[in-house]
């Protein structure tokens, strides 16, 4: 699935609390994978996945909260 070579077949995805139910900007992340946070578009679950290091995820989310 992901070009990073990480097996995401057992990933548990959760939708961002900022996503809405009307087809808006929907982002999902998968929890429980050591050292990485996979991110995908919930409207295209079979599409691409961006894999972010866990160390970079916290600062990334903090930066977005400041927008």
Structure, explained:
- There is one protein chain.
- The chain is an alpha+beta fold and 67 residues long.
- It is 18% helix and 30% strand.
- A four-stranded antiparallel β-sheet has the order 1-2-3-4.
- A hairpin with a 4-residue loop joins strand 2 (27-31) and strand 3.
- The longest helix has 12 residues, at 54-65.
- It starts with 11 loop residues before the first strand and ends with a helix.
- The model has no long low-confidence stretch (mean pLDDT 83).
What is the strand content? Answer: 25-35%
Number of helical runs? 1
SSE order, one letter for each helix or strand = EEEEH
- Give the structural class: alpha+beta
Specify the overall morphology: globular
Helicity, in percent? 10-25%
Number of domains: 1
Mean pLDDT across residues: 83
The tally of strands reads 4
Strand order of the largest sheet: 1-2-3-4
The stretches of 5 or more residues where confidence is low (pLDDT under 50) are none
Could you tell me the radius of gyration in angstroms? 12 Å
User: What can be said about the biggest beta sheet?
Assistant: 4 strands, antiparallel
End-to-end separation in angstroms reads 31 Å
């Amino acid at each position: 699935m992901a070009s990073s070579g990480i097996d995401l077949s057992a990933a548990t995805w959760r939708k961002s609390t900022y996503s809405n139910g009307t087809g808006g900007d929907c982002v999902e992340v998968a929890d429980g994978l050591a050292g990485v946070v996979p991110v995908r578009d919930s409207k295209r679950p079979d599409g691409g996945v961006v894999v972010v290091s866990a160390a970079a995820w916290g600062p990334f989310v903090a930066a977005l909260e400041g927008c």
